[in-house]
Design brief:
- The protein has about 210 residues and is mainly alpha-helical.
- It has a single domain, classed as Orthogonal Bundle (Arp2/3 complex 21 kDa subunit ARPC3), CATH 1.10.1760.
- It has seven helices and four strands; from the N terminus they run E-H-E-E-H-H-H-H-H-H-E.
- Strands 1-4 form a two-stranded antiparallel sheet. The chain has a two-stranded antiparallel ribbon with strand order 2-3.
- Helix 3 packs antiparallel against helix 5.
C-alpha cells in the first residue's frame, strides 16, 4: 500500500480546485485600495505552496501531472461555460443573460492564465527539485521560498504580458496588476512556508504476506 496517498489526494484536489476558482475569479478586475488587481489573486497565490506540498508527498512526476490536469480542467471549464452561454435560453424561463455576463470566458484572460500557470508551475517544480537534490531534508523552508521566488514573477509577467497583448486591459492597469500580484503572492508564500513541514513523502510498502 502507499502511505500518504490520502494526503496526496487532498492536497492535489485542493490544488486543482484552487486553480479553477482562481481562473473564474480572474475574469473580474477589481479595485483594491486604489490598485487594479484581478480577483483571482485572492485564491491563486496559494497554488504555489500547494504544488510544493504535492511535490514533497508524491514527487516531481505527481506535481507535473497535476499541473497538466489543472490546465486541461480549466480549459474544459472555459469551453463549457462558453457553450452554455451561447446556447439559446429557454423561452419560458426567460433570457437568463446573467450567466453569460458573469461566466462567459474572456479568452484573452483564459489563455494568459493557463499559459502562465503551466510555465510558472513547471519552473517551480524544477527549482524545488534542484534545491531538494542539493539540500536533502535540510532547510525545507528553502524549497518553498526559493522555488516560489523564481516562479512567482514569471507567472505574473506572463499573465499580465499576454493579457495586455490580447487587449484585455490597458498598460496602466497591467502595471498595477503585475505589482499587486507579485506582492500578494510573496506574502502568501511567507505565511504558508510552515505547511511544508505538515506533510510527509508517500512511501511504497510491500503488502503483507498471506
Amino acid at each position: 500500500m502507499i502511505t500518504g496517498l490520502r494526503t496526496l489526494l487532498i492536497v492535489g484536489g485542493a490544488y486543482v480546485a484552487a486553480q479553477m476558482i482562481a481562473d473564474v475569479a480572474s475574469l473580474r478586475i477589481v479595485d483594491a485600495w486604489g490598485w487594479a488587481v484581478d480577483a483571482g489573486t485572492i485564491v491563486y497565490p496559494i497554488t504555489f505552496t500547494l504544488r510544493d506540498l504535492i511535490h514533497k508527498v508524491g514527487g516531481p512526476t505527481a506535481a507535473r501531472t497535476l499541473i497538466g490536469v489543472a490546465a486541461v480542467v480549466n480549459l474544459v471549464m472555459a469551453l463549457v461555460f462558453w457553450l452554455v452561454a451561447e446556447l439559446p435560453a429557454d423561452t419560458v424561463t426567460g433570457p437568463q443573460t446573467e450567466f453569460g455576463m458573469v461566466l462567459a470566458p474572456v479568452w484573452g484572460i483564459v489563455i494568459a492564465s493557463i499559459v502562465a500557470e503551466v510555465v510558472a508551475e513547471l519552473i517551480d517544480t524544477e527549482v524545488y527539485r534542484m534545491w531538494e537534490r542539493r539540500m536533502g531534508e535540510k532547510a525545507q523552508w528553502g524549497r518553498v521560498l526559493v522555488s516560489n521566488a523564481v516562479a512567482i514573477p514569471v507567472d505574473s509577467a506572463i499573465f499580465v504580458g499576454l493579457a495586455t497583448l490580447f487587449g484585455v486591459f490597458p498598460a496602466a492597469v497591467a502595471w498595477s496588476i503585475l505589482g499587486v500580484n507579485i506582492v500578494v503572492k510573496g506574502v502568501v508564500t511567507l505565511v504558508s512556508i510552515p505547511w511544508i513541514y505538515a506533510v510527509k513523502p508517500a512511501r511504497l510498502e510491500s503488502s503483507p504476506t498471506i
